């Protein structure tokens, strides 16, 4: 999959090994000024690009299926557009018509007697949605624990609802988790008013057994015994083929891996943010956060909005740039997506959650409808007004991002959009 500094076969992935001579771990050791280059990883770019429309289509299926008639006029769907992540110049009706294997278009008279397009779901889409509901029901404890662990990472065990809404797809939570899940677990969660007049979700109790990171849980099997005893755990590291790590950077990275590991669930207020020890703790936080997601990836803007809840320093997302062997940032789909490298063997997710398998089946249904439509298998009557989709070429490829991106525009800090908080009555 990748070229590692020192290769030890464990589950098909190499671990960074080798310690230099003992050195002082005191807090006085400042943050080493090292910047590693970004190198394109086409396999992980493909993983991100292949799910370009999956989230938006899945959300629309949840919305339509929850309506009384399972059929909604397009103008009522537009109020949900902000959750879909679609390009601003792409009409919602155009996007929906792209996938006739999932959405059925009809016309009806709504409000004022106007004839407007309405959309319902195909039998295949309804069946997949029912399977999704069954998976959610069967794995509810797993999703609840993912949510609990996420809140345990934060200050006050609390997150704004908007921040959770941005992460619910990645965590595998139901679209309407606020109403379908939280009210049934009032012993675990509570809605609270935040100082900025928003509403947040608070965890009511700490679970010691959950406060163990993925790295710690696997340490006995994947780490050296002396490292486990000393708490100097190393992260799995791999690089894109042809990365070409310089000797200076290699030595720094070997030393950095031998630094003490601070659990993301423990209090780190005593750490000096200007040190490598503190940086390793930040890396550990996002290593754990990405392991909580079912696809081991999330958009970078979702991470940026977690700075205050996670009590992290300014420009904390720079750890993604400094550790490209742990994280990969893809520029596909007109956004930046952070991917946990160790979770993938090229394009293959090594451990698949049942929800991931279901989403893969849904993606196949989307692809089939798109290809059949391009072959003219879905005939439309004259006057149906099918829009030409300027963002997709004849074979369904995304034209937003070119194959060659510029390094100069790769990394940047996102502005938080926390002021647009959806309201909920307590």
TrEMBL record:
<protein>
    <submittedName>
        <fullName>Protein ROOT PRIMORDIUM DEFECTIVE 1</fullName>
    </submittedName>
</protein>
<dbReference type="InterPro" id="IPR021099">
    <property type="entry name" value="PORR_domain"/>
</dbReference>
<feature type="domain" description="PORR">
    <location>
        <begin position="39"/>
        <end position="369"/>
    </location>
</feature>
<feature type="region of interest" description="Disordered">
    <location>
        <begin position="388"/>
        <end position="407"/>
    </location>
</feature>
<dbReference type="InterPro" id="IPR045040">
    <property type="entry name" value="PORR_fam"/>
</dbReference>
<dbReference type="Pfam" id="PF11955">
    <property type="entry name" value="PORR"/>
</dbReference>
<dbReference type="GO" id="GO:0003723">
    <property type="term" value="F:RNA binding"/>
</dbReference>
């Amino acid at each position: 999959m990748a070229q590692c500094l020192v290769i030890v076969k464990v589950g098909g992935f190499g671990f960074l090994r080798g310690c230099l001579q003992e050195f002082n771990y005191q807090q006085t050791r400042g943050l080493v000024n090292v910047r590693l280059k970004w190198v394109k990883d086409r396999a992980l770019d493909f993983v991100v690009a292949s799910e370009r429309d999956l989230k938006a289509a899945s959300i629309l299926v949840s919305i339509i299926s929850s309506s009384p008639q399972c059929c909604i006029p397009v103008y009522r769907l537009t109020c949900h557009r902000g959750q879909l992540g679609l390009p601003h110049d792409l009409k919602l009706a155009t996007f929906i018509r792209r996938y006739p294997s999932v959405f059925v278009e009809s016309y009806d008279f709504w409000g004022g007697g106007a004839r407007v397009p309405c959309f319902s779901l195909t039998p295949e889409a309804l069946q997949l949605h029912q399977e999704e509901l069954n998976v959610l029901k069967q794995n509810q404890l797993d999703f609840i624990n993912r949510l609990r662990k996420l809140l345990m990472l934060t200050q006050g065990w609390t997150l704004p609802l908007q921040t959770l809404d941005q992460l619910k797809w990645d965590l595998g939570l139901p679209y309407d988790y606020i109403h379908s899940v939280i009210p049934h677990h009032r012993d675990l969660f509570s809605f609270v008013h935040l100082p900025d007049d928003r509403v947040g979700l608070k965890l009511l109790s700490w679970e010691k057994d959950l406060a163990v990171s993925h790295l710690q849980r696997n340490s006995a099997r994947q780490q050296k015994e002396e490292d486990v005893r000393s708490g100097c755990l190393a992260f799995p590291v791999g690089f894109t083929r042809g990365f070409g790590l310089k000797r200076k950077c290699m030595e720094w990275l070997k030393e950095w891996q031998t630094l003490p590991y601070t659990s993301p669930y423990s209090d780190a207020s005593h750490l000096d943010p200007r040190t490598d020890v503190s940086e390793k703790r930040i890396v550990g936080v996002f290593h754990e956060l990405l392991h909580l997601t079912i696809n081991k990836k999330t958009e970078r803007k979702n991470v940026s909005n977690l700075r205050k809840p996670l009590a992290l320093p300014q420009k904390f997302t720079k750890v993604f740039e400094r550790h490209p062997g742990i994280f990969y940032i893809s520029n596909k789909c007109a956004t930046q997506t952070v991917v946990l490298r160790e979770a993938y063997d090229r394009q293959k997710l090594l451990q698949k959650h049942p929800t991931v398998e279901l989403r893969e089946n849904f993606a196949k249904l989307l692809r089939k409808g798109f290809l059949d439509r391009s072959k003219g298998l879905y005939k439309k009557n004259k006057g149906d007004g099918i829009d030409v989709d300027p963002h997709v070429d004849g074979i369904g490829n995304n034209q937003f991002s070119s194959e060659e991106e510029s390094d100069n525009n790769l990394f940047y800090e996102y502005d938080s959009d926390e002021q647009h908080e959806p309201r909920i009555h307590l």
